Amino acid sequence: MPDSESPSETIGQSGIDPQAVTVSALTRALAAGQLSSVDLVRHYLGQIAARNGDLGAVITTSGDALDQAQAADLARSAGTAAGPLAGIPVLLKDNISADDSPATAGSPALASAAGADAFLVGRLRAAGAIILGKANLSEWANFRSTHSSSGWSTLGGQAVNPRGAGRNPSGSSSGSGVAVAAGLAPLAVGTETDGSIVSPSNSCGVVGVKPTLGLVSRSGIVPISADQDTAGPMARCVADAAVLLGALAGADPADPATEQAAAQPVDYTGFLDPGALDGARIGIWRDGSAAATPATAAVLDAAVALLRASGAVVIDPVHLADANKIGEPEFLALRHEFKTDLNAYLAAVGGEHPMSLAELIEFNSVNADRVLAHFGQEIFEQAEATGGRQDRRCQEARAAARGLARSALDGALAEHRLDAVLALTGSPAWLTDYVLGDHFVFATSSPAAVSGYPAITVPAGSVAGLPVGISLMGPAWSEPRLLALAYAFEQALAGQVRSA
After folding, report:
1. 201 counts as catalytic
2. Nearest-10 crossing angle of helices 238-248, 23-31
3. How confident is the model at residue 4 (pLDDT cuts 50, 70, 90)?
């Protein structure tokens, strides 16, 4: 890692508490000369150097992070600094490619692949952001084994949830969630196919945004399936997530799914309204968390009470028809799509690496003592045995999964004239277990993930000191409304805590 100063109680000489930092506070301190970008980057590099050995959140830091910071400071002194993230460090999940830093997906198989800026990384740089480094992840975005341990990768080791001893951060954007929660970075980018942004955000107690499919480009990201994959923000608060979303979003000629992104807002912070819940119609999906313990269910009850106290019209419960049937056709489709999409990605990436899923399976087998140390590659093998996207069974399964997911959400939204559907995001963090694998109790990400619709998770409470979040889901391109509602909920909850 680059040379860095020791961790400090405040960020540089700004007086900003690292545990309460926001992008707006950092931006003000930078503009006022109370803080330089070099100081800021040194602070976070120091935090990573001191704590990442215990947390496993970061695979690598950018060798030129301090050079990027110095350039940002020079631009600011010259009056040319621009962009909503000018001088602000951002951590990337390591399935996202950047200059001189290949997207490894946590696997040594891609360690020597070529690195070039993904489209979203170019967007971040244009917004003034400093690329701080690469976050650990569940290897191959948790799509290698049916018994995987979330947060573990060969290159990064096991990411550790900072909210509880021995607790798992969930995945697959595990390192991104850990880094933001632990103060190793102010912002991080995650990716999601189904749950991989919102689940670690829930487990680590941060805000996560799973955007509408096509709002953020997938160019330069190791794929699972173009039918569900998206990158999105992970941050300490809704306002920070809104800033980061605006920087990430945009139309990419190389990703046809993003064509409609050109018509979306360029700045989401203007939608943040503390009064947005007043008169909003919110439907409560309880079936998705039916397996919750009484203590976890109580977090949802408290959230519902807060919604009502904030003036929302709450319809409790609402039914998402056949939502429990989404998983089977989804997983069938994903295995077919993964084979085709990953083979195409590998064929297009330069450098030395396996050129197909079949070669990856062979690589893992040859290096089994290291790569398969904790779990196998059953999903890889199942995907390789499929006929890929051209298989009629894939097309039928995708149509069935998408139809079920959209019918479930669209039906509830229309029947009750809802602004959003709200549910618990997931259970509290489980203990990491290499023998039995992940201990999911419940998760509610699938309807939005398979529909391609947006979802935002916000911390809502805790169980035995472990965070639990609520998710707001809405129709395609409803990020402005969902961010407004999430922000209003966050502010109402903060006010409730202060007055307690």
Report:
1. no
2. 80
3. very low
Task: Grade residue 183 by pLDDT with cuts at 50, 70 and 90.
Answer: very high
Q: Where are the domains of the chain?
A: 18-270
How far CA 313 is from CA of 278, 280, 484, in Å, comes to 8, 6, 16
Catalytic residue among 97, 101, 176, 196: 196
Which option is the CATH number for 18-270: 3.90.1300.10, 3.40.640.10, 3.40.710.10, 2.30.30.520? Answer: 3.90.1300.10
Instruction: Give Cβ neighbours of residue 336 (< 8 Å, ≥ 6 apart).
Output: 383, 386, 387, 388, 389, 391, 393, 394, 397
Of residues 85, 99, 100, 60, the one with CA closest to residue 184: 60
Report residue 41 as tokens: 């980057």
| Identified catalytic residue from 37, 107, 172, 446 | 172
In the residue annotation, 172 being an active-site residue is answered as: yes
What is the per-residue pLDDT for 366? 98
Residue 106's SS3 state is: coil
- d(CA 43, CA 63) in angstroms, rounded, equals 15
What burial letters (b/e) apply to 126-141, b meaning 16+ CB within 10 Å? Answer: ebbbbbbbbbbbbbbb
Q: Is 339 a catalytic residue?
A: no
Q: Give per-residue pLDDT as tens, 456-487.
A: 999 999 999 999 999 999 999 999 999 999 99
Each residue's pLDDT tens digit, 259-300:
999 999 999 999 999 999 999 999 999 999 999 999 999 999
